[in-house]
Amino acid sequence: MLLVLHHDFWRERGVELWFGWVPEELAWRLAWMLLTLGYLIWFCAAVWVEDEAA
Amino acid sequence: MDPATSFAVALAAYVLLVLSVGWLATRRASSSSEEYFLAGRGLGTLVLFMALFGTNCTAFVLVGIPGQAYHDGLGVFSVNAPIIALGIPLTFWAIGAPARRLAAQYGAMTPAELYSRRFGSRAVGVLLFAFYTLYTLLYMVTAIRGAAVTLNVVTEGGVPEWVGGAAVLVVAVIYTSLGGMRATAWTNVLQGAIFLGFMVAVFFVFADGVSDGAGVSGAMQAVREHDERLLGVKDAGLYVPTAWTSWGLAITLTVIAFPHMLVRLMAADSDRALKNVCRLYPVAIIALWVPAVMIGVWGAVAFPGLEGRDSDQIFSLMVAEYLPPALSALGFLAVLAAVMSTLDAQILTLGSMLSRDVMKPSSDERRDIQRGRIFSVVIAVAVFLLWQVGGQSIFSLASIAFSGYVTLTPTLLFGMRWPRFNARGAITSILVANAVYFLALARAGGIGSAKDPAWFGFLPVMWGLVAGVVGAVLGTLWSSRTAARA
Questions:
Q1: Are strands A17-18 and A22-23 parallel, antiparallel or unpaired?
Q2: Residue B271 and residue A17: Cβ atoms within 8 Å?
Q3: In chain B, what are the domains?
Q4: Which of A15, A29, A51 has the CB atom closest to B78's CB atom?
Q5: Which residues pair with A17 in a beta bridge?
Q6: How far is CA B94 from CA A48, B173, B410, in A?
Q7: Is-contact B168 B148, C-beta < 8 A?
Q8: What is the per-residue pLDDT for A54?
Q9: Looking at the predicted structure, is the pLDDT value of residue A53 above 50?
Q10: Which residues of chain B have pLDDT under 50?
């Protein structure tokens, strides 16, 4: 899902300023990166198996 | 204090600080090869994160990205920052974590040594060393040039470029050869704090400057009035779907293939430290990349009319325009810190590979460390000569390095995650991937065309990567069948 949202050529990429100061493009990418952060936190906890034996 | 004096004081303080750190690490570094080359495999979360992030981020992010954003706007952020925030941590998991564990098991201290032992083949180690060296030397030359040019500009020609480049190399070699990996990791904490702190601070200072005190909101409004296309994404070049995908793959996969990054992952003290680094990476990417891109976008408002590569000066121009003279030296220190935090790791890693992968490791550990120190000097001299002799042609050659590293990732990944993958598969993969990559470069327009499409709109890196995967699979299956028949 993250990769589909990153390849967002289906989206109309506007140049509006949200709240008067955040460019729409930057807001979209930052929101995506926050999703990524959440995904990585989940990934590290649930998927990444620690192996301290080595 | 006048600007020249404040610049000299700041520079002297910085050099003294990094040399002191190198000296402090000397005693521990001299105790064993593992301590010198890998900091005793004991880097915890904070030092590991700063060492990796500092090594990953070069002057390119501080100088090159604002220069590109000056012309292309926010699209520069869109095509780069999000995908590396996701991709780099995933490669740390896919390749870095098993590499750390296996390196400890084999007692390997360099990436080439690790893969050589994994496959039981010295040829794989030597081949990896050869391509690592080719791409890393070119990469180092651009870093040195970046620091030398900035020093020359800041001192208004007072320090000739060759003197600046030589001085940066000498300082980096001294603290690296004194304290080995621990010295470079500790100095990276300092260097990362300098350039990350600087970028976050100037984001607000520059916004105020561009908007006459109206802050970020005013600066964004000013961009909209100047050229609103800078707030969006272009629909040409890297921003069309095929190039966007190829470039995303290149910048995501290249980082784990830097030998100086992989060796740092091998120096982590635990998987837990690696996990913490992965959680921190997206936050640090945002903190560094948002200011870097906005410096370029706001710079287009403040200094319109820069053509082509002249826009690479936008970082220096903004620093000179909006920072008080006494603080403008910090701009140069930020660039210097970013350059040196990568350069030290490269010097140490290539030196250690020469010492352990080309020469046979000595049974006397002190001799191994001495050899590593001597080779660090040899690498620095080679980089300096390459820069001086190669001239401008080297810089167009250097653009092939980032994509070139990607040709090694199938071997790095399968070597850690595919038990059947063997030496023949690795050798086939590396050779075929590089052959196809250079063919694709030629098709795209020659050396220096790494960002131009080769076939069907995809960049040369994509073709090199696909060839590497195919070569790895066919080479492995072919040798398995041969073995089965025998």
A1: antiparallel
A2: no
A3: 3-392 (1.20.1730.10), 407-486 (no CATH)
A4: A29
A5: A23
A6: 9, 32, 12
A7: yes
A8: 42
A9: no
A10: none
